[in-house]
Amino acid sequence: MAVSEKMLDLTGEASSQLQSAAYHELKDLVRGEIVTMLTKQEPTMLMNTINLHLRDNLSWEIQQEAVDLWRVVIRHREDAPATDVIDLLTRDHKRLDDLFARSLHHINAGEVAEAAPLIKEFIVGLKKHMDVENNILTLSFAAPRDPFGGDPTSTMLREHDEILGQAAVIESYFEDGLPDAKEVAAFFAIMSGTLAKHEYREESLLFPHWKAAIFRVPAEMQSALFKRVQETLIEGSN
Questions:
Q1: Which of 49, 157, 224, 229 keeps 20 to 30 A from 137, CA to CA?
Q2: Is the pLDDT confidence value at 235 over 90?
Q3: Residue 13 backbone phi and psi in degrees, to 5
Q4: How many Cβ atoms sit within 10 Å of the Cβ of residue 23?
Q5: What is the mean pLDDT of residues 47-71?
Q6: Same domain for 226 and 134?
Q7: Are 184 and 193 in contact (CB under 8 A)?
Q8: Mean pLDDT score of the chain, rounded to an integer?
Q9: Are residues 43 and 110 part of one domain?
Q10: Tell me, what's the pLDDT at 177?
Q11: How many domains does the chain have?
Q12: pLDDT, tens only, 123-144
């Protein structure tokens, strides 16, 4: 992949305009591009805020070069190795989202043959992803539960069962050949909405808990967990 490098000097930018100026330059960053940003303001909060708006699409390294000068080397997240287990899961969410979105696009266009391999790959990966969350992270780093099932973990497990049920219905239509697009379009649409709500709740409520819990265990345990999760997800993507 060809690499394109760009210098972004924001040292003369007013503090009130810094975020908008940086966001404008970074919002369309794609794989293979590297932006080196210079700023007089410590950039950690700035980068976290921009990255939140860009749904965690950025990876960066910060180096202080003088009392009031910072250099930030910014890449697309997919160009940098995953940093921890939650990073692996977030990236896998995006991979699965892309597979499902592409299959949905083909279904809506009546291109069932093109959708078939994508939805099959999606379902295989989905099961592996949920295996990690249900049987590795939930069991190893339990979050507080309530007897009425309203806690984030109970909600996640219920939604996983619901999503797997929806996936099984879709999968059944492809078992003996190719269905008519109109037969399955409604099921694809339902799953699309379910996935979006589920991932948002999971990433905002459970991922921070798991991330904090993982960082509290010894480094060798973190490394072993990272390897186990990575191998499980890679197996699901093959």
A1: 49
A2: no
A3: -85, 135
A4: 14
A5: 93
A6: yes
A7: no
A8: 94
A9: no
A10: 93
A11: 2
A12: 999 999 999 999 999 999 988 8
Distance (Å, whole) CA 83 – CA 211: 11
pTM of the model: 0.81
Secondary structure, 3-state, the chain? CCCEEEEEECCCCCHHHHHHHHHHHHCCCCCCEEEEEEECCCCHHHHHHHHHHCCCCEEEEEEEEECCEEEEEEEEHHHCCCCCHHHHHHHHHHHHHHHHHHHHHHHHCCCHHHHHHHHHHHHHHHHHHHHHHHHHHHHHCCCCCCCCCCCHHHHHHHHHHHHHHHHHHHHHHCCCCCCCHHHHHHHHHHHHHHHHHHHHHHHHHHHHHHHHHHHCCCHHHHHHHHHHHHHHHHHHHC
**Can you give the residue range of the structural domain that contains 29?**
4-79
In sequence order, what are the beta bridge partners of 76?
58
Distance between CA atoms of 29 and 37, rounded to whole angstroms?
Answer: 13
Kindly state whether residues 169 and 107 are assigned to the same domain.
Answer: yes
Confidence of residue 149 (pLDDT cuts 50, 70, 90): confident
Residues in the chain: 238
Give phi and psi for 76, each to the nearest 5: -65, 140
Same-domain check for residues 89 and 11: no
Say whether both 134 and 96 belong to one domain: yes
pLDDT band at 1 (very low <50, low <70, confident <90, very high): low
Q: What is the phi/psi pair of residue 61, to 5°?
A: -125, 135
At which of 22, 45, 79 does a domain end?
79
Tens-place pLDDT, residues 154-205? 999 999 999 999 999 999 999 999 999 999 999 999 999 999 999 999 999 9
